[in-house]
Automatic annotation (TrEMBL):
InterPro entries: AB_hydrolase_fold, Hydrolase_4, MAG_DAG_Lipase. It comes from Kouleothrix aurantiaca. PANTHER family: PHOSPHOLIPASE-RELATED. Residues 1-88 form the Serine aminopeptidase S33 domain. It holds the Pfam family Hydrolase_4. Signal peptide: none annotated. This is Lysophospholipase.
Length: 108
């Protein structure tokens, strides 16, 4: 959505659209395992997801968050995979800082 971010992304030599079948299956089976074991996740978790993410499933993140005992989930409608690189990046970072501040307050 930000042309400058898109240009930088396309120019990055580490960015590509290839994934081996082995890596795909590893990611897929690990995702299934994570969903099955979400209720056992022992730590506070902030899970942020772009609602228009074409790479990973917002629905799967939502489902994980519903199963995890101490998970704060926020879906950002209209944002894509790298929510920290969207025009709303300051709002995203503010959300992270607020969550961390609240967590520190819980622990101290």
């Amino acid at each position: 959505r930000d042309p400058a971010v898109g240009t930088a992304y396309r120019a990055d030599p580490l960015v590509h659209s290839k994934m081996s079948a082995r890596l795909y299956m590893g990611v897929y089976t690990s995702g299934l395992w994570a969903l099955e074991h979400a209720a056992e996740f022992p730590l506070p978790l902030l899970l942020l997801h772009g609602g228009d993410d074409p790479i990973t499933s917002a629905a799967a993140s939502r489902e994980f968050a519903a199963r995890a005992p101490d998970c704060t989930f926020k879906e950002w409608p209209g944002l894509r995979h790298e929510i920290h690189n969207e025009p709303e990046q300051n709002e995203v970072l503010a959300e992270i800082i607020a969550w961390l501040s609240a967590l520190v307050g819980r622990v101290s």
